[in-house]
Write a structure and sequence with these properties.
6-stranded antiparallel beta sheet, about 400 residues, alpha+beta
Length: about 400
């Protein structure tokens, strides 16, 4: 039978027959478990951790390397099921290098498989796949999220009480290419990340390295995130690409602003919707928030104006770094240019990050004119799927122009 290979972040529909997810791990001993999650993305009780000592719960069962989910038996208050692989805690120092893979089968349906990119940051736990309710049915998403903090990190994110793991020998992170480590203040907020969002610890370290490599010592900035909510972005929200992008921005902010919070504005045809994403609530946050916003032609200028107003009202003394994701040309180009000119003296830096299927020539060419240039503006083309860009390159490109602006 033909097998469809899923890419990281991709999702596909499931029939209502039992689904079997068989995990394969090469090179080390690993355990497989599953989590049932409620509407708040937390387990309803500790019984929702299904593993070898508690092999069955509410339609979800674990046998060896396989997880079986009987979708019709999963209770209505369980909205998601995660499939997880973890290194054996009795083998201290063991980490994933080659990523585990998962084969997904259902009777009468085409087989599917998923193998995440290989891991390089000492990951000991991997969330491989997520089954979630959509309308009256179920879908599955290829996740591939690694944790370098063991089951304790996973438990922190999803509300499980787990026994402490045996002490392990710390695994050093890669340090290739680090030219200027910078002062300790660059990583001052990482203990908070490790405590509240251990799944973001690796990207936060990569973001800190990118800042240090550009000679930005002890940087401080208020980070904002504007997200395009045009109708053509729908598949990128659905595929987890926008959520993953927001998580990366949140990991960057941990190196710039110690409150663990990034204000988020959704740019749509209506008044911009302002919310926030935090270290303690980031998982699935964008997916939940964006459903409260109508689709439409993004009003980028109004979202920018709202971000500047919020920044000024906050009384912040540090500069603002506004990461503005764009998927197509703005319809309000004159207003965008005017805002860029008027905020140059306010300590606001604009980074337009393009990804999606639309044309982006306006943003690419903002500083192409010889008569009008914007010292506080840069553009970064992240391609159709920014999740495919490795952390090291992503953060280097993300902070390059911002670092130059700070040094002016």
């Amino acid at each position: 039978m033909r097998t469809t290979s899923l890419r990281k972040g991709e999702n596909t529909g499931l029939t209502m027959t039992p689904v079997v997810l068989d995990v394969s791990v090469q090179g080390l001993t690993a355990d497989v478990c599953a989590l049932l999650l409620g509407a708040d993305s937390k387990v309803r009780s500790d019984d929702d951790l299904v593993f070898y000592n508690h092999p069955s719960q509410d339609g979800v069962s674990v046998a060896g390397s396989a997880v079986t989910v009987d979708l019709v038996r999963v209770p209505a208050d369980a909205e998601r099921v995660l499939v997880v692989a973890s290194t054996d805690p009795l083998h201290p120092g063991a980490v994933f290098t080659r990523a585990p893979s998962v084969a997904i089968t259902q009777a009468g349906a085409e087989a599917k498989s998923f193998t995440p990119p290989d891991f390089t940051s000492g990951e000991t736990v991997v969330v491989l796949a997520e089954l979630y309710r959509r309308d009256a049915g179920w879908k599955i998403r290829a996740v591939g999220q690694g944790y370098a903090s063991g089951l304790a990190g996973l438990a922190t994110d999803y509300g499980v009480d787990v026994d402490p793991e045996p002490a392990a020998t710390p695994v050093p992170l890669p340090t290739q290419g680090r030219r200027n480590p910078g002062p300790a203040g660059t990583l001052a907020s990482l203990p908070k990340v490790e405590r509240l969002a251990p799944g973001l610890l690796s990207p936060a370290r990569q973001a800190g390295k990118a800042l240090a490599d550009r000679g930005i010592g002890n940087p401080r900035a208020a980070v904002y995130l504007i997200l395009d909510h045009d109708w053509h972005m729908e598949t990128l929200y659905e595929s987890f690409a926008v959520q993953a992008f927001a998580e990366r921005v949140l990991a960057l902010s941990a190196n710039l602003d110690d409150d663990g919070t990034v204000p988020v504005l959704f740019s749509s045809r209506e008044e911009p919707f302002l919310e926030e994403i935090r270290l303690d609530n980031y998982r699935g946050r964008i997916g939940r928030l964006h459903t409260q916003v109508d689709w439409g032609w993004g009003n980028v200028a109004e979202a920018m104006r709202r971000a500047v107003g919020h920044y000024q009202e906050s009384g912040a003394a540090d500069p603002a770094f506004v990461v503005t994701q764009v998927g197509a040309e703005p319809w309000d180009k004159a207003e965008v240019r005017s805002l860029l000119q008027n905020t140059a003296s306010l300590g606001v830096f604009w980074l337009f990050v393009g990804f999606g299927r639309g044309k982006l020539a306006f943003y690419k060419n903002l500083n192409a004119s010889t008569s009008v240039t914007f010292s506080n503006v840069a553009f970064y083309d992240a391609g159709k799927n920014p999740g495919a860009v490795p952390d090291e390159k992503f953060y280097a490109d993300l902070v390059d122009a911002f670092g130059g602006w700070l040094r002016r």
